[in-house]
Amino acid sequence: MTSQRARDRLATKLKEEGIRDQRVIDVIRNTPRHHFIDQALHSRAYENTALPIGHGQTISQPWVVARMTEALLEFGVPQKVLEIGTGSGYQAVVLAQLVPQVYTVERIEELLRQARRRFRQLGLSNIRSRHDDGKLGWPDEAPFDAIILTAAGDAIPHAVLDQLSPTGVLVAPVGSPSNQMLIRMRGDGQGDFIQEELAAVSFVPLLGGIG
Ligand code: SAH
């Protein structure tokens, strides 16, 4: 159930459902998603669904991870990417195989501890992580060429948007649990943003403070 066949099936499904970036499909095919969830759920690791990771949080659906990742990469490979909401660490690990440097922030310490262990086990040394309220971004490391939020708020926090480079790309779910859209914002270099709606999605909420 965690076999190469299950992973290949997932890759085929992503393609059927409109994911076009072959780099992203290949990385998802080769990333052991079962390492990011509890053993009791291993048989479902390569299903195209979100799964619980404890603390009321979820590892995102693979299609959503793929869509967000390809949306970030579409205009060129960003050098420095900030993720808000490390969770299991899966999205960070997918990104770290495609871009030079990933910074990820999580508010629940226990989830971050487990994610860090996975980064080490997978030998990924280009992920830096931080226990903090991601609504503040990571000011000391700004600006970022790309920012991805994996929890949904009513709007993109100002501090986070301020840390996007003038021509950067940001992908995030925005809205209430019952009415959420995945949006992409692209800086035009002059301080304005071009905003697009990519898909209807369902993410856990972006909360304030640290857990
Ligand atoms: N990217 C994750 C998805 C995790 S779910 C993965 O691949 O598994 C969203 C995560 O965002 C949860 O772990 C939640 O604790 C975290 N989160 C919510 N609000 C946050 C905030 N203000 N700062 C940092 N993390 C936050």
Please tell me about this protein's structure:
The chain is α/β, with parallel strands linked by helices. It has one domain (53-201): Rossmann fold (3-Layer(aba) Sandwich). The chain contains 6 helices and 9 strands; from the N terminus they run H-H-E-E-H-E-H-E-H-E-E-H-E-E-E. The protein has helices at 4-16, 22-30, 62-73, 90-96, 109-121, 158-162, and strands spanning 51-54, 57-59, 80-84, 101-106, 127-131, 144-149, 164-176, 179-187, 193-201. It has a 7-stranded mixed sheet with strand order 5-4-3-6-7-8-9. Strand 4 (101-106), helix 5 and strand 5 form a beta-alpha-beta unit. Helix 1 (4-16) packs antiparallel against helix 2 (22-30). It is globular, with a radius of gyration of 16 Å. S-adenosyl-L-homocysteine is lined by residues 57-60, 84-85, 87-88, 90-91, 105-108, 111, 133-135, 150-151, 204, 206-208.
List the helices and strands and how they pair.
Blueprint: H1 4-16, H2 22-30, E1 51-54, E2 57-59, H3 62-73, E3 80-84, H4 90-96, E4 101-106, H5 109-121, E5 127-131, E6 144-149, H6 158-162, E7 164-176, E8 179-187, E9 193-201
This protein binds S-adenosyl-L-homocysteine.
S-adenosyl-L-homocysteine binds at residues 57-60, 84-85, 87-88, 90-91, 105-108, 111, 133-135, 150-151, 204, 206-208.
